[in-house]
Design brief:
By secondary structure, the chain is an all-alpha fold. It has one domain (2-15, 26-52, 61-185). The chain is 62% helix and 0% strand. It has eight helices and no strands. Helix 2 crosses helix 5 (102-123), helix 2 runs parallel beside helix 7 and helix 6 crosses helix 7 (153-170).
Length: 202
Amino acid sequence: MERSDVNRREALRTLAAGAVGAAAAPLWVESLTAFAHQQARAHAHAAQAARVQAWTPRVLTAPQNDLVIALTELIIPQTETPGAKAALVNRFIDGVLAEAKTADRDAFLRGLAWIDERSRARHAKAFTAASASEQESLLATLASEANNTPDDRPGVEFFRAIKSMTISGYYTSEIGLQEELGDDATMFLPEFPGCTHPEHQG
């Protein structure tokens, strides 16, 4: 319970700052997470309708979607309130990827593949087949600068991106707004200005 509470406090701080969570994030991470912030407002309006409709991913394959669900639920797990899975954060991420720049989308998908490859190397099984402790151990390595190595860089970059996207999707979902933030779904986060680097524009 304590670990989950810490995750939520960290998530809210990141959300309030409108930041990726790392000062030296690579360009694709900045670009994709800025775009996710912008898309989050539309996701909040669509969440309730999406919950009762059949849904097919526009970008993610079935295994990729399962992996995104597992990762996002570890980032914001279910406690006394629902987690990222119940908030349909995977659908939000798939929607962001569908509209994102091709290079940013491809970098994210390479990150997903990296996570599975590293899980197979460490635990001889795909990430979704690993135990909870094995999954948490891998993510803890990526989240801690003291524990990761240069070989972990692709995973570190990917984890920054999916963490920020998860926070954006969760805290602008119906569940995040009403059950976590106590909002009546009429108040939304201020519009995120997006990345201001010239190379990200256009």
